[in-house]
Specification:
- It contains seven helices and 14 strands.
- It is α/β, with parallel strands linked by helices.
- Strands 6-5-4-3-2-1-14 form a seven-stranded mixed sheet.
- The longest helix has 11 residues.
- The N and C termini lie close together (5 Å).
């Protein structure tokens, strides 16, 4: 299994437009430049794209993403859904066939509202997108492994928590972005994972995201070999904050890639 972080930033990206406030962020450090959050997972030979931010096209070019077989939308917020039109290239690479798209009921409804022109069995014109929509099941079996899902609280909606398990290696990878807490069901699904990713927005509390302290406390309870924090705000400096984190917890950054 190979995991690539296409983006690790919050909904505005980092830095934000006209960021004049002095938060002590070292923007000479490339790890403090964060596009909106998403990941790409290669599970066996299946390429799975999780979320598509407004930065999606550039993220694909920057990280040499050459294939998408399945798309999963964790939730319907703009920073996760508004890049989906750029999935058109991967439809073209599949001969125009509709790309399988999975999400929550609300996520699917928003896709229909925004991308009504793409809900087709096959692209209407060469180079256009086509999406085949399905509600994300609790277990999605794909060539090379399984993807387990659960619902996590995120303000006034729920987001998909995802656990990837590879057949060939038995390795598990957990992606719990955009959530205020981790449910008991999610902790059970995540048990035995080599790497866990948690939402860790900022130091100050937030009503729909875990703070960095909350994420660290959750990481200690889950006790994975390594926990990575994502969806990081514009007032968090990578080096300074990393120095304060407990053992086995680190901050993810754009372009981070590893194999399990």
């Amino acid at each position: 299994m190979k995991v690539t972080f296409l983006g690790t930033g919050t909904s505005q990206g980092v830095p934000v437009i006209n960021q004049t406030e002095d938060y002590g962020i070292d923007f000479d450090n490339p790890k403090n430049w964060r596009m909106r959050s998403s990941i790409h997972v290669k599970l066996g030979e299946t390429h799975i794209q999780v979320d598509a931010s407004p930065d999606f096209r550039w993220q694909c070019l920057r990280n040499s993403i050459s294939a998408v077989d399945i798309f999963i939308l964790t939730h319907s917020h703009a920073d996760h859904i508004m890049g989906m039109d750029d999935l058109r290239r991967f439809c073209t690479l599949h001969g125009g066939a509709a790309l399988p798209v999975y999400s929550t009921e609300l996520g699917l409804r928003r896709i229909r509202e925004i991308y009504d022109y793409a809900i087709l069995d096959k692209a209407s014109v060469s180079g256009y997108p086509a999406f085949s929509l399905e509600k994300m099941p609790s277990i999605l079996t794909v060539p090379g492994g399984k993807i387990y899902s659960c619902l996590l609280p995120h303000g006034d909606l729920e987001t998909l928590g995802l656990v990837f398990e590879e057949d060939a290696t038995g390795k598990k990878f957990v992606y719990f972005t955009d959530c205020k807490s981790i449910t008991t069901e999610a902790q059970i699904l995540a048990a035995g994972a080599e790497v866990v990713v948690l939402d860790g927005l900022r130091e100050k509390p937030h009503y729909s995201h875990m703070s960095i302290n909350e994420a660290c406390e959750t990481a200690q309870k889950m006790n994975a070999p390594i926990t990575l924090l994502t969806h990081i705000n514009y007032d968090v400096d990578h080096a300074k904050t990393s120095a304060k984190l407990p053992p086995k917890v680190a901050i993810a950054y754009d372009g981070l890639s590893f194999e399990l």
